[in-house]
Design goal:
Layout (H helix, E strand, L loop, with lengths): L12 H21 L6 H8 L3 H29 L1 H19 L5 H15 L6 H8 L5 H29 L2 H22 L13 H12 L2 H28 L8 H5 L6 H17 L1 H18 L5 H29 L4 H57 L5
Helix pairs in contact: 1-4, 1-7, 1-8, 2-3, 3-4, 3-5, 3-15, 4-5, 4-8, 6-7, 7-8, 10-14, 10-15, 12-13, 12-14, 13-14, 13-15
């Protein structure tokens, strides 16, 4: 006897619950992931550490997240989608609460490292859940709401952190994020519908490693992975250290005002969609190098000492980042001929490794050469990204992906 399991249809209560739950999960994940970025100047002062050391509070989280992404997707094939995502969100939220009471910087780093391990459960699985459970005609809506939860969570978490740090202190700010995260996690566990189309599989490590090796032998994918590394390393480095410059003379902005700079992320909602359409029309290989060049131009404009021009530069840089990230990630799905989810996971791995390495290396350039040193490093990263984009365009030749 064959039992037909229907997809979650648009307009139903299940569809509403699934989308709200996934929005909450995405919001929670990225609010937690980036919650220490606005705190870096406060951590430097509290623990008497350098900007480079303070940047580790983000870098250790993104590097462990990158490694975990390669594991959680496989675990969910055995244990199930919802249980792994729920465990991920609850455990990460509890770890944020512990971080608020960290007695020293080393223990804070340990908690942040564990958060990275825990957080990977949602981004590694959420898109697979959406693809399996949501009616194919409504996938765009569901995916869009999940991704908007990611960006709004990343932006809102930073603003909440900056404001509460200014009003009370950084420990209260982290505690607030932990409590909000725990509430969102419980909501996620209650509202997300159980999987109906998921079938558990056996863990087949040999097949996993073989397909991963095939992806890493594909020169087009390797170029795109390298581009992800360089653009994310540049992006995190700029936002990691802009706060140090803006709280110092001649600007002397408060942590609250500095945290509101993350509202610029809203530009990404537009640029990612717009550049994706341009890539579909003109070809990914014609658009990618141009938008990375736009990103580099924005970085150079931030060298201007005028605050308004600096913010304009950050806006252009942010527009270029989200546009290039959108073009690269969509191109990977078209180039990969098998195990597309694994190809995307590998991209996210390089993407977050770039965040860790670039975000911390930027601290060395900031300490030694100031803002000009940070932009110099970012410029080198983006020149390499442009060269890789031109190379992948060359080897793609006349094939339009």
């Amino acid at each position: 006897m064959i039992i037909f399991m229907s997809y979650i249809q648009k307009g139903t209560a299940e569809f509403k619950n699934a989308n709200i739950a996934l929005f909450a999960g995405g919001f929670n994940t990225f609010a937690i992931l980036y919650c220490t970025q606005p705190l870096m100047p406060s951590l430097s002062k509290q623990f008497n550490i350098s900007p480079t050391a303070a940047s580790l509070s983000l870098s250790v989280t993104t590097i462990t997240l990158a490694l975990s992404l390669l594991i959680f997707g496989s675990l969910s094939e055995v244990w199930g989608r919802k249980i792994v995502m729920s465990f991920s969100l609850v455990s990460a939220s509890l770890l944020v609460l512990l971080t608020a009471f960290a007695p020293n910087f080393h223990s804070l780093l340990l908690f942040r490292m564990l958060q990275g391990l825990a957080l990977a459960g949602l981004p590694a699985i959420a898109m697979a859940y959406i693809g399996e459970e949501i009616d194919p005609k409504s996938l765009g809506v569901a995916m869009g709401l999940y991704i908007s939860g990611n960006s709004i969570g990343g932006m809102s978490g930073r603003i909440i952190i900056g404001t509460i740090t200014d009003l009370i202190n950084w420990r209260a700010a982290l505690g607030s994020i932990g409590l909000i995260g725990l509430a969102f996690s419980v909501f996620f566990c209650i509202k997300l519908p159980e999987s109906k189309h998921f079938t558990p599989r056996k863990m087949e490590l040999s097949k996993l490693l073989k397909s991963m090796g095939n992806h890493l032998k594909n020169p087009k994918l390797l170029c795109l992975y390298a581009i992800g590394f360089f653009i994310m390393g540049s992006f995190v480095s700029l936002y990691n250290f802009i706060g140090y410059q803006l709280i110092a003379p001649p600007y002397l902005l408060s942590p609250t005002l500095v945290s509101f700079i993350f509202i610029i992320y809203i530009i990404g909602t537009f640029s990612s969609t717009y550049m994706g359409r341009l890539a579909d029309y003109y070809g990914h290989y014609n658009v990618l190098w141009v938008i990375i060049f736009v990103m580099a131009s924005g970085a150079l404009i931030t060298l201007n000492i005028n605050l308004i021009m600096k913010i304009v530069g950050i806006c252009i840089f942010t527009f270029g980042f989200f546009g290039s990230h959108s073009v690269v990630s969509s191109w990977i799905g078209k180039i990969a001929t098998h195990d597309k989810s694994q190809a995307s996971s590998l991209y996210l791995f390089f993407y977050y490794v770039g965040s860790s390495i670039g975000g911390t290396a930027g601290g060395t350039f900031w300490s030694s050469f100031g803002w000009g040193g940070v932009i110099g490093m970012i410029s080198c990263f983006l020149i390499l990204a442009i060269l890789f984009s031109l190379y992948v365009s060359t080897i793609t030749k006349t094939v339009k992906y």
